[in-house]
Amino acid sequence: MTCGRCGAANAPGAKFCNNCGNVLAPAGQMPPPGQSVPPVRPLPTVTTAEQAKLALILGMMSWVLCGFPTGIPAVLVGRKAIRQIRQSQGRLKGEEIALAGVIMGYASCAIWLVFLIGGYLMFRTAEKQTTESEASVVSTIQQVNAAEASYARIYGGSSGHLYANSLAALGPGPSGTCVGSGTREYACLMKGPLVEPDCREPHWCILNDYKFQIQTHYSSSSRDTDYAISATPIEGRGGSKHFCSTGDGVVRSADFFIFSLDAGYDPETCHRLKPIEKRR
Question: What does the CA dihedral 57, 59, 64, 65 come to, rounded to 10 degrees?
């Protein structure tokens, strides 16, 4: 017998619907007067869990707020909402919403974690390259200092200190090869791109990620000369410092971001910088 109220099927001869409690009677027949009808049991109200809604909101926000600030809460709140829904015996719904929040929270955290690790590795790699580049520059300046010291010893004599007035004067000259022991114009004390014939002030000569230049200073009160070898990073490459050194053999530096170096240091200006040993 079919219930006229809810449409549920009931056993033949049943007086009351086993689903909603409605009185069952043949079509066109009403229940006898005074017959009591069992109360109808209301169906339970199903609502969406608030925690599930919150998990979804946090999951969506995690894609804007770099993952971690809202991504981790989205995972925690979403998992809690799923447990509540499964234990509610049908009174709560929204498990799919909570699951979506959990997935977005996990995904955003994973993606931003990859970005953070990648950025850290790139930073460390750049830092290592800068350190190696600056160490190479210091080594090159020390080689120039040694060549200048040899030049002064060979060509200065008793007339005082006489240094090469350019990087080119330390090299082999236009021929590119040294014949004999060299001359005062081309002393054959160094080889390579830094001592090409055109490596003269104001021209800069490049080695790796730095450019180099020598300036010579003549003393008005004596016959001595001094020089300053300068090295500055090529824009967008190299390290973060300028370097210089003079006849005293001390390598000094200045931070690159403070100012750019358009012309090489003169000896007096170089002496004002701090030696690199004291900057550690």
Answer: 100
What is the rounded CA–CA span in Å between residue 41 and residue 20?
6
CB 230 within 8 A of CB 205: no
| Token pair for 171 | 């090299």
- The Cα–Cα gap between 47 and 92 comes to 5
- Whole-angstrom Cα distance, residue 279 to residue 265? 19
d(CA 202, CA 181): 28
Q: What is the DSSP string of 4-24?
A: TTT--B--TT-SB-TTT-PBP
The whole-model pTM stands at 0.63
Give the CB-side neighbour count of residue 269, counting CA atoms within 13 A: 15
Residue 65 has pLDDT above 50, yes or no: yes
Which amino acid is located at 223 in the chain?
A: R
Say how far apart CA 150 and CA 156 lie, in whole Å: 10
Q: What is the pLDDT of residues 66-118, one digit of tens each?
A: 666 788 888 999 999 999 988 888 888 989 999 999 999 888 888 888 888 99
Model pLDDT, residue 213: 93
Q: Which residues contact 214 (CB under 8 A, 6 or more apart)?
A: 144, 164, 165, 166, 167, 201, 227, 228, 229, 230, 264
Cis peptide bond upstream of 33, omega within 30: no
pLDDT digits (tens, 9 = 90+) for 36-58: 555 556 666 788 889 989 989 98
Rg of the chain (C-alpha set): 43
Rounded to whole angstroms, the Cα distance separating 51 from 59 reads 12
